[in-house]
């Protein structure tokens, strides 16, 4: 197999890449060229390092990297992108990983590779670790947190019944209190025509949060979200949804529809309404809506916040590989 490296940003538009994302069961929107190109344009350092693994005329694997100060990482950013890594068809994955790691080892612009965002239950974590060893690299395995996953396998009433009684009554009480204070409260989705103003409103909710969360939606990040929405909202991949009543936005969430899953990326709420718990009410109403849409899982992405486990999400371990030259 041949590995071709390119720093040409036009490679993000490769049809081969899109096809591999569609065929790889472990791929997500974060692995797609649209997301990664927008990330690189907003936050990248230097040209992208894109590797295309080819078997004859066929592209069987694509991986995007960046190198900063002698450290090679998957393109995406540790604080922004939850899942990272190559994409490729399941058949031939081990050989593709070997060739990819051999090509990475042959580069002279890095000393350490810090490869994060690899789910342990996916196929790439083990394939890359084995491929790196074959390439003569020292491999250290570490964890990269958890991404709790809530299966949506039956119906919303059945899901609610599966929760502990105290929590079930608490969630129902919170929803009743919201509707007592705001009788018309409902989920309202941003559209292509409302997206710009809706994102501004979401950013304002976010910046009102305390501490690190309140600092996340700085102007550069807001522009990144704006471009993501512009690119991915028209086909239904990107979703910005609010718990809203009579034009008042009580809480909001951003996420991605990714095949049979919905990925909740970020959320915020109106802190003047904190006593009504609008954030958790939004989330439970979103779960109900996802059941109605036929989604099979709600991915709450990286972070071990207590509310995720309380809602019944199962911890999904994410792996990290540290590679060093011997």
Reconstruct the topology from this structure:
Elements: E1 2-6, H1 15-23, H2 33-43, E2 49-55, E3 58-68, E4 71-74, E5 87-88, H3 93-105, E6 112-119, H4 124-134, E7 137-146, E8 149-151, H5 156-162, H6 165-181, E9 186-189, H7 195-207, H8 211-216, H9 219-232, E10 238-245, E11 248-258, E12 261-269, H10 278-293, E13 297-299, H11 306-310, E14 317-325
Parallel strand pairs: 4-6, 12-13
Antiparallel strand pairs: 1-2, 2-3, 3-4, 3-5, 6-14, 7-14, 8-13, 9-10, 10-11, 11-12
Architecture overview:
- By secondary structure, the chain is α+β, with helices and mostly antiparallel strands.
- The protein folds into two domains: 2-147 and 317-325, Aminopeptidase (3-Layer(aba) Sandwich), CATH 3.40.630.30; 149-299, Aminopeptidase.
- 37% of the residues lie in helices and 29% in strands.
- The protein has helices at residues 15-23, 33-43, 93-105, 124-134, 156-162, 165-181, 195-207, 211-216, 219-232, 278-293, 306-310; strands spanning 2-6, 49-55, 58-68, 71-74, 87-88, 112-119, 137-146, 149-151, 186-189, 238-245, 248-258, 261-269, 297-299, 317-325.
- The strands form two sheets. Strands 1, 2, 3, 4, 5, 6, 7 and 14 form an eight-stranded mixed β-sheet that branches.
- Helix 10 (278-293) links the parallel strand 12 (261-269) and strand 13 (297-299).
- Helix 2 (33-43) runs antiparallel to helix 9, helix 6 packs across helix 10 (278-293) and helix 7 packs antiparallel against helix 9.
- The longest helix is centred in the middle third of the chain and has 17 residues, at 165-181.
- The radius of gyration is 21 Å and the shape is elongated.
- The two termini are 24 Å apart.
- The mean pLDDT is 95.
């Amino acid at each position: 197999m041949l590995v071709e490296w390119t720093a040409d940003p036009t490679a993000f538009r490769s049809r081969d890449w899109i096809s591999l994302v569609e065929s790889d069961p472990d791929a997500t929107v974060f692995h797609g060229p649209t997301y990664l190109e927008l990330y690189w344009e907003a936050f990248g350092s230097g040209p992208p390092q894109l590797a295309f693994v080819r078997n004859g005329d066929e592209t069987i694997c694509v991986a995007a990297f960046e190198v900063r100060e002698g450290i090679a990482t998957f393109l995406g950013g540790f604080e922004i992108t939850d899942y990272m890594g190559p994409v490729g068809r399941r058949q031939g994955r081990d050989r593709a990983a070997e060739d990819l790691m051999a090509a990475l080892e042959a580069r002279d612009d890095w000393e350490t590779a810090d490869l994060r965002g690899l789910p342990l239950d996916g196929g790439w974590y083990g394939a890359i670790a084995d491929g790196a060893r074959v390439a003569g690299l020292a491999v250290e395995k570490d964890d990269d947190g958890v991404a709790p996953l809530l299966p949506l396998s039956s119906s919303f009433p059945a899901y609610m019944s599966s929760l502990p009684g105290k929590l079930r009554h608490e969630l129902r009480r919170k929803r009743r209190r919201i509707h007592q204070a705001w009788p018309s409260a409902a989920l309202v989705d941003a559209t292509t025509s409302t997206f710009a103003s809706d994102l501004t409103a979401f950013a304002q909710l976010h910046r009102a949060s305390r501490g690190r969360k309140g600092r996340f939606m700085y102007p550069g990040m807001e522009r990144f979200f704006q471009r993501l929405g512009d690119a991915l909202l028209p086909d239904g991949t990107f979703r910005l949804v609010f718990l809203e009543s009579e034009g008042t936005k009580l809480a909001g969430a951003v996420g991605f529809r990714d095949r049979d899953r919905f990925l909740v990326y970020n959320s915020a709420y109106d802190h003047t309404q904190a006593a009504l718990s609008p954030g958790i009410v939004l989330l439970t109403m979103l779960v109900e809506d996802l059941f109605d849409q036929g989604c099979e899982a709600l991915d709450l992405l990286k972070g071990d916040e207590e509310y995720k486990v309380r809602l019944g999400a199962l911890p999904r371990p994410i792996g990290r590989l540290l590679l060093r030259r011997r």
